[in-house]
Specification:
This protein has 210 residues and is α/β, with parallel strands linked by helices. Helix content is 30%, strand content 32%. The protein contains 6 helices and 13 strands. Strands 1, 4, 5, 6, 7, 8, 9, 10 and 11 form a 9-stranded mixed β-sheet that branches. A two-stranded antiparallel ribbon has the order 2-3. Strands 12-13 form a two-stranded antiparallel sheet. Helix 1 packs antiparallel against helix 2. The longest helix has 19 residues. The protein starts with a strand and ends with a helix.
């Protein structure tokens, strides 16, 4: 596996992924689990964020301690399922701005089609956390990464719940500078390019559209 690929082995994350995969999990529980998983993954995603020293006063005395620097952070969910990961991350990074990239996969060609893009004007100066629960062929993700890089983004971190080998290998080949974080890694895609065993269509399960 490429050095920039991180697969979470934490028991809590693995437990919640199993519940997320279950076809009997309700829409509400699916949404809550996606929220919780996204929050849990933030710890690893941000472990290299820079700190600065500040002086504060506790109830006992003055003290020098550390806080996050003012480095800008932008969350960029790929519509529509990526929206379900935003809230959990914002619980820990409340000042992160949010951009959106709208892509859908053509069911005949399996190629990504862009239909919406709205990003912070200075996103090139930000650490970008791109969000998409399902990482199958990598087509949509590669297209989204190109959009971000065309805007000047250099520090991009891709966060997904379930990743397939084909997609991961493609992004490692086409965008070797991008760090990939996933909660589960599946080997197989079916003839329709859906991850197996996967968890189905994350957007449909999140929004109750099927």
């Amino acid at each position: 596996m490429h050095e920039n690929v991180f697969i979470f082995e934490h028991p809590l994350i693995q437990h919640k992924v199993s519940l997320l995969r279950d076809k009997n999990t309700s829409m509400k529980d699916f949404r809550d689990l996606l929220d919780e998983l996204s929050m849990l993954m933030v710890y690893e995603i941000t472990k290299d964020f820079p700190l600065v020293e500040v002086e504060i006063e506790t109830p006992m005395a003055k003290a020098k301690t550390k806080v996050l620097s003012d480095k800008k952070v932008a969350l960029v969910p790929i519509l529509r399922a990526g929206i379900g990961m935003v809230h959990g991350i914002q619980q820990l990074l409340p000042n992160a701005r949010v951009g959106h990239i709208g892509l859908y996969r053509d069911h005949d060609t399996c190629l990504p089609v862009e239909y919406y893009c709205k990003l912070p004007s200075d996103i090139a100066d930000s650490t970008v956390i791109m969000l998409d629960p399902m990482f199958a062929t990598g087509g949509s993700i590669s297209a989204a990464l190109k959009i971000l890089k065309d805007k000047g983004c250099q520090d991009i971190r891709l966060v997904c719940i379930v990743a397939a080998r084909a997609g991961v290998e493609r992004i490692c080949r086409e965008h070797p500078d991008v760090k990939i974080y996933c909660a589960a890694f599946d080997e197989v895609l079916n003839p329709n390019a859906y991850i197996v065993p996967g968890l189905g269509d994350a957007g449909d399960r999140l929004f109750g559209t099927k």
